[in-house]
Amino acid sequence: MTKPKNGPPKAIGYVRVSTKDQGENGYGLEAQAHQLETYCAAHDLNLVAVIPDVMSGRKTDQLYGRIAAVAAIRAGLANVLVINALDRVSRNTLDGLTLVKDAQDEGWRVLSLDGVDSDKVEKLWLTVRMGFAEEERDKISKRTKQGLIKARQAGKRLGRHSQIPEDVVARIVDLRRDGKGANTIARILSEDGVPAPGGATWYPTTVRGVLARKGVE
């Protein structure tokens, strides 16, 4: 794929979490979005949007975020779909192969942080790789369900707490209500040395996640 004359290739990022808790908490999505931002910056890709899904990947007909991401590419808003891993955008071998084939046939590109490139991938290699990934996911799913059952039987409280203190959340909301955008808020928090989830740097996606959970536009 050649670079457009007017700048680097435009990319749509896609992220997904599979549990209601992760969707409400937001950090699973934010961590994935941060990885995509870093990858695109290092590979000269203009990341124009990151679209999320919160649901089981086995219901591929209900992955509305993925549908929207691919539709945006087909509409000409971008020509690259960037994902963390192919098993995050498709949870079975046939669906993943179909997505890659669609990209190849239609002239856009699928790139994943774990090394899949639809411009270069060979069908046999991809089939074997996704088959192993699907088998491993099934094993993990069984172990997770068994662990949850044991935890509930032991009376353990499931779930996790927010990693962002309430006073920081309140400051983010106040800055937004003062008319500042997510990029500006992230820069202010980073410059002021406010600890961010998982590091020292705040990203616009983290700020947007906080605002979304508080219902602030």
Describe this structure in words.
With 217 residues, the protein is of the alpha/beta class. It folds into two domains: 10-132, 3-Layer(aba) Sandwich (Rossmann fold), CATH 3.40.50.1390; 166-213, no CATH class. It contains nine helices and four strands; from the N terminus they run βααβαβααβαααα. The protein has helices at 20-25, 27-42, 64-74, 86-89, 93-106, 123-153, 166-177, 182-191, 204-213; strands at 10-17, 46-54, 80-83, 109-112. A four-stranded parallel beta sheet has the order 2-1-3-4, sandwiched between helices. It is globular and about 50 Å long. The relative contact order is 0.12. Mean pLDDT is 77; it is low at 157-161.
Order of helices and strands: EHHEHEHHEHHHH
Poorly predicted runs of 5 or more residues: 157-161
Briefly note the structural class of the backbone: alpha/beta
Radius of gyration, whole Å: 19 Å
Helix content class: 40-55%
Report how far the terminal alpha carbons are from each other.
Answer: 37 Å
Domain module tally: 2
CATH architecture of the largest domain: 3-Layer(aba) Sandwich
> Could you tell me the strand content as a percent range?
5-15%
Based on Cα principal axes, name the global outline. globular
| The CATH superfamily title of the largest domain | Resolvase, N-terminal catalytic domain
**CATH C-level of the largest domain:** Alpha Beta
CATH topology of the largest domain: Rossmann fold
Q: Which strands sit side by side, in order, in the main sheet?
A: 2-1-3-4
Total of DSSP H or I helical runs spanning 4+ residues: 9
Q: Average pLDDT, to the nearest integer?
A: 77
Number of strands: 4
What is the makeup of the main sheet? 4 strands, parallel
